[in-house]
Structure formats: C-alpha cells, structure tokens
Amino acid sequence: MRLLNIEIQNFRNLSSVQLTLEEGTNYFWGENGAGKTALLEAVSVLARGRSFRSSQLSDLVASGQDAFTLRMSFVDEHRGAQTVAVMRAIRGRSQLKLNGESGKRLSEVARILPVQILLPSLSDLVFGSPVERRRWLDWGLFHVKPNYLSTLREYLQLLKQRNAALKSHARGELGQQGIDIWTQKLLVTAEQLDFERRNYMHDAAAEVLEVLQRLSPKLEIAISYRRGWPECESLEKVLSESLARDVKLGATSAGPHRSDIQLSAGVELKGKASSVLSRGQGKLLASAMVLGQARLLNKMSSRNSVFLIDDLGAEMDHKHSAALFRLLGEMGSQVLATSTYLPGESRSTDLFNTMVPVTMFHVEHGKIDARPSGAEPMFPEAT
User: Model pTM greater than 0.85?
Assistant: First the structure.
C-alpha cells in the first residue's frame, strides 16, 4: 500500500494543506507546534477512524471552524487506486466515503489501509498495561483474518452480558441459571479467540525476534502468549471456581479479555522486560514488535504497511535509528516521519544514508511547503 495525495482542511492548525507523497521516506521537519504531528494524526483518522492524541472531536477541528475535512488517495496492492474522505462536524453528522461512496464502515477502510504508528510513547507497548499489547495483537489479526473482528466483537458483547448477569445475581434479581446461559455462550467464542491469537502469536513472535536481532543483536528477549487463564485448566472450570468472586466483583475475572503477551529479559530470560530494560531498549523492542507485525502481514496477505513515525530518534540513538530505517527500506515501506531536525543536524546526522529516496517537507505555522512537482488535482470524485 502506498499513499499518494492528502488534502486537509481545518484540522487542528492545518487550515488548508495539499500534499503529494513519494515512495520511501517523506520527511517533515519544523519547530514544535508547527503542525507535523497533526499531519500524521490526520492520516491516522483517515486510516483508523480515530486520532492517536485525543478522543474529543472539538480538539481536532481548527479553532473557529465547525468541521474538518480530510481526503486521501492511495494504491492498494489488491484493489488498485482508491480514495477515502472523512468529514466530521462538531454539530451534525459525520461522513465517510470510500471511492466516492458513502455508507462504508470504518473497519472496511481500516482493513485496506494498514498504517503502523510509532510515537514517542511507543515503549508503552513494553512498559504499559496488557491493554496496549492486546491492541497490538488485535490489530495484527484484524488485518490477516477476515472474521476476527466479528468474533472479537461478539466476545466483548457476551462478556458485557455476563457481567450484567453477575451484577443482577448479586442484587437478587437473577438466579445462577441466568449467569450460566451467558457463560456457555461466552466459552464458545472465547475458544475461537484463543485459537486465533495463539496461532498468530506463534508466527508473530518469530518475526519480532528476527527484527530485534537486526535492530539490536545483543538484546535477548523471549516472547510468549498468555491466554488469560491457567494453561493447565479449562476456562469453564476456572469460571465455575471463580463464580462467587466474580459475583462479588460484578466482573468476569478470566478469559481472552485478560490475555497478555509476556516479554521476558535479563538473566536466563526470567525477568519481566518492563523491569529489566531501559527506556531506549524498551523502544527498540516495541519497534521490533511493530516492524515484525508488518513483515508478517506482508507474508500472509501480500500487503505493505505505511509507517508514521513522530519525533524521529526519540529515546533511540543514531545507530539504532539507522538500523530501523535500513529495515524499513528493505521492506519497501513508505514512511512519513517528523523531526525538529534537518538531516545533517544533531540526532539525524547521516540517518538517511541508509535509505533512498527521501522527500523533504518544511512545516511552519500550519503550512507545509512545497509539495513535490508533478502533483495532480486531487479527489474531484470524493468531494
């Protein structure tokens, strides 16, 4: 997948932007607050339907405006030329169009726009809660297993129903039989989720460790999948034995919603990576997880990811940053990267000797100059 053109209107401090993107690395440099991260955020909204910075729509619409509009053209490996457009108003309906057609679901757009986002907070994938790692796992499965999202949604809905039944039982409004009905339904979907996740992690872990060896050969890590209940016991038995506690808590204490990816490091790989690794090492491991996932996606579905990298080089030294870009170049990935430095200055010195071509953009006061030559009029059919 490759992004071609982006059009942005009234999104944060980007009042009116038109860009033609190139293969390889598109490098956006400028001072803090210039609008570099807002550009990546706009691509995220187009590709994933949400911002990586805020859940509040009012934060995204430019000051004094009522709505923002985003449009993008791209080439998909399987569908050819595509366009997507999003309009969101503070008051009134939002619109999503794929190839000029309304009524499309966000998941349909996201499936053909595999965008990987590397933020300064990327190390949260290692040091943060299991929620971060489950989100990483679900993203990967969503893009390679067509029915995975519906299975996940079904499980979460059944989990919600069982938790409601637990609370009703605690208030004396529902007998145990009412809980058992939802438990049996939950067990079927839980087994499906666990099966898909376990198989995916077997392949993903191998890719991650291979990438990590390229990024930092001396960093030894072990990766294992934890399904959310003891390996030696069935979920049915665990839920039966924990029923009294679950009723008291009003929540289901075991299941795929409690799964995690265990990252081990240190002596004989017996320590938790979050306790053993430095912040820089944690970001290296997290980067390997993201690149490894993208490599697996390419192998399983012949689709390349686009990488959005904000604040290039944060918590990662020049040597490892160069190794990261070398790998991205080998993968044939398109990259949108931001920095406050020009190549040749400070942390970015010689970084791009590892990958060509590089297209430079200067961002200042919400303006991005100048789009590369050869840009064509954009999106007449998506307006």
Answer: yes
